[in-house]
Design a protein that fits this description.
- With 129 residues, the protein is α/β, with parallel strands linked by helices.
- It has one domain.
- 43% of the residues lie in helices and 22% in strands.
- The protein has a 5-stranded mixed β-sheet. The protein has a two-stranded parallel ribbon with strand order 1-2.
Length: 129
Amino acid sequence: MSAVLHAMLDLDPPGAAGLAIRRIAGAGRATAVVTSATFSCLKRDCGGEKRALRWLANLAAEIRRPIALNLPDGPDRSGTFFIAPPDWTEERLQGFIAGRHEELEGVLGEVAALRGVGGANAAESGGGA
């Protein structure tokens, strides 16, 4: 059984975003979904977008599971990008997403598309915000 945990956290203190993401991603088998608000705090804590993305990629490699990053993609839309461990194939990542399809739609809205982005390290699903 897979699960998606939806939590509202106070991420104002420096370092709180990374700590919260690490704890949620490493706990059990729930899929960690990083929202745009949480990602903004992580970018602040890491010193920019590239460093925050690298931090998420390193965490995915450490926990050996993908991490979802949900960002706005226009009004009333968002895109969810899955950052997978480096040794995962695109097929394995697509299977991971398919196995959690209903839970992810429950949190993020309808999945309109699924396509690979950046080789085997990321896949994208588009849904409502």
